[in-house]
Specification:
The complex is a heterodimer of chains A (437) and B (327). Chain A is of the alpha/beta class and 437 residues long. In chain A, 29% of the residues lie in helices and 22% in strands. Chain A has two domains: 107 residues, Urease, subunit C, domain 1, CATH 2.30.40.10; 306 residues, Alpha-Beta Barrel (TIM Barrel), CATH 3.20.20. With 327 residues, chain B is an alpha/beta fold. Chain B has 13 helices and nine strands. The C terminus of chain B is likely disordered. The chains are: A alpha/beta (437), B alpha/beta (327). Chains A and B meet through helix 6 of A and helix 5 of B.
Amino acid sequence: MESVVLRNGVVVGSDAVSVADVLIVDGLIAAVGVNVDAPVGARDVDVTGCWVGPGFVDLHTHLREPGRESAETIASGALAAAVGGFSAIVAMPNTEPAIDNVALATYVLDQGSRAVVDVAVAGAITQGRHGERLAPMAELAQLGVRLFTDDGTGVQNAAVMRRALSYARPLGVRLAQHCEDENLAADGSMNEGSLSSRLGLIGRPAAAEEVMVARDIQLVRLTGAPLHFLHLSTARSLAMVGAARDEGLPVTVEVTPHHFSLDESACSTYDAHFKVNPPLRSPEDVAAVRASLTNGLADAVATDHAPHAAELKDLPFDEAPAGMLGLEHAASLTYEALGGSSADPVRFFALMSRNPARIAGLRPSDDRIRHSGHGGAVAVGEDANLVVFDPNGAWVASRETLQSLASNTPYHGRNLMGRVRFTVVRGAVVVDEGVLA
Amino acid sequence: MIESIRGRSLLSLHGVSREALVEVLDTAESFVEVHQRTVKKVPALKGRVVASLFFEESTRTRLSFETAAKRLSADVLSLAVASSSVKKGESLRDTIATIDALGLDAVVLRHRSSGAAEQVSRFVPHVRVINAGDGLHQHPTQGLLDAFTIRQVLAERRGVSAVETGAALFDGLRVLIVGDIVHSRVARSDVDAYVTLGAHVRVAAPGTLLPIDIDTWPVEVVGDFDEALEWADVIGLLRLQNERGTGSFVPSLSEYTTTFGLTVARARRLRPETLLMHPGPINRGVELDSAVADLPAAIIERQVSNGVPIRMAVLYLTVAGTIREVA
């Protein structure tokens, strides 16, 4: 493996930044410092002005394998992740069939081991994601699965959710909930409000999310088990979870780039590229989600990358599937939302790498079964899972240049600031000057 | 604001100006006369191709559009697709592309999904799209024909020419719309038309059948049908859309009839000149008692027959794009 030295970058630590060189040898960080001596034949790259930090970790990636490989495979999703600066992703279990057993989880991990980035897998909470009987969480935990979710929908039955939390707690695994009460959200295809009413589209009210957030906070209190809240999208949801955390409850929160970059007005032309669950919200909720990046309410940015075949997004709005791509634009949108040129790099890497790695159980100190360490320090001896992010890189999002097999990005034509120059996975440069190596 | 529908698609009445609405009503008046001829045809759209695509069942709207197109001498391609585009395995985009390959000037589209007409207008931007009802969103030609019918009847009563009155007869006109507002594309188009033309609109419905944002509509909500009975110059009843599961929004149909149905007892309290309207098909005995539907005050059949001149006007203005050459 070629040795690489990244010269003169802004190395982003967990609480401070410093200008230094980073030497990568044999998959590990071999030196960090000023004027580092590189071995003979090492590649020397000037990254002056760029942020060098731990590779991004996505807690929420929908790969469509098995079941809908025409929209995305594990391999293609990993390519999209790499160009987005991610060194590790967590594959969501709502494939067809759902990942609710050891055989399927093993399949995804094996395919993932051949992919360009590290692929962890989340298991289903309930068998078939039907919300009734628990999936074999203990067996899956032995395989290294650390996160469980029925994402796509939430566990609707409160008693089943309580049982799942109680079962998960001694296993040391974390449940993650898609909070939407289906009785309230059923048939809805956008945020409920004046706009949905004018457009004649049935709404998914903010309350559909908030009642499940409120319920689950009480269940965390009851069971003491940790719970991760997926893609929170309303001001009230965030406030409730913030209060629960202040009380000492073991809750974590992710927010998505689309919920802090786009609001419901994007739906006004019935373009199904803007259909997603939970839906794009009011400008007030979007502002609250955006604020959560800096006020500490959000632990992590997660993409909810959801590939869909192009013809499905041409369907009428109410018939089209929900979900949008996210991996390739998440870092730029997060940088923009953190204030662009005034963004704090420490906070940026906390949201994009360190916290999601901790929530997913992918930190260097976490027990490792399949993967290397992610979200750690940029320090000698650590696995070289790194990203070089150029905060001054301006570019335009385009559906024509995506690595994902699907093209359902809502950002086509959007001007972006901040760009991934290099992604390094286990010491290998997989994205080189923004292009797959 | 849309100042005229000439030469453009008609997707919604939201944002269509008073002048544009009056232009359609006046054009329709000129086509009423065609209906009284022995040869009920004008050459206005001769050589033009109009496709009528109904992805949702409809009898009156479809017949009315096709009759209108034929009276204008257009060639009509008619495609009824009862099932949804998904079930058929062909996307709306592919269906439209296929038909467009035959050389279209206009598409009349009915679809169960809100926004379908707007989407089609994006797929084939060179074709005029006329929304014949999309989901819960809009049914613009129904709104136009309702306004047309009101103006026609009021003008006859006063012995004046409807065209000469412009929008004056709507000034301060008191219209009460009753029933399933939330699921009604007719209500949205009617409110847009009536309010823009100058009417004062009230709505009455059970709480579950009022839109969540009704406070932002340019209407007044009355809690009780009886309260507004004597106030109204026009009462527009809406169909309780039981086939869309609306039944579960009220405890029972009989309770609905008791509280919001136009029963014989309520009809007795109406002022004699009050007009009764319904977009059809009527659930007799639910929102409207059979005996009331047959009263002279009920102008429901007029609404149906006015569908043809209104749709002639809409096709003519959107496709030919000029008002000069009406035969």
